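From the methods appendix. Each design record in this collection lists the tokenized structure first, followed by the designed amino acid sequence. Records were kept in a plain field format so they could be parsed without special tools. The example shown here is representative of the layout used throughout.

RECORD:
FOLD TOKENS (114 positions):
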């Protein structure tokens, strides 16, 4: 069984999750929005379902897929300490920019109008 990180490494699967953030969707609609065949979309959805990232429910002939964010919470918890590093660096960048204002960046340094 692949890890959540391995499942999310595939760009099409991330795009599927992005679409499912908007709400549940049948496989045919997801396939159309992604420009995939229905069997192609179904293969990605199966991997996402097995990883616990999506749930499926049958409604008549349709299978509706929806996001299950529990595995994403685990990733979020893992990333939390790294965000503290990024925040500190962004704060340092902000201080640097405040202390060293950039002159008008739209002016060309060699502009003869100077």
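DESIGN:
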């Amino acid at each position: 069984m692949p890890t959540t990180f391995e499942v999310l490494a595939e760009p099409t699967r991330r795009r599927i999750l992005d679409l499912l953030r908007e709400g549940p969707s049948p496989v045919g609609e997801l396939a159309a929005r992604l420009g995939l065949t229905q069997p192609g979309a179904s293969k990605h959805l199966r991997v996402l379902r097995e990883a616990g990232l999506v749930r499926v429910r049958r409604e008549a002939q349709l299978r509706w897929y929806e996001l299950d964010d529990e595995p994403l919470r685990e990733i979020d918890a893992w990333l939390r300490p790294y965000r503290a590093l990024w925040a500190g660096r962004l704060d340092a960048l902000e201080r640097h920019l405040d202390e060293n204002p950039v002159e008008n960046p739209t002016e060309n340094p060699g502009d003869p109008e100077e």
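APPENDIX NOTE: The first helix runs from residue 4 to 8.
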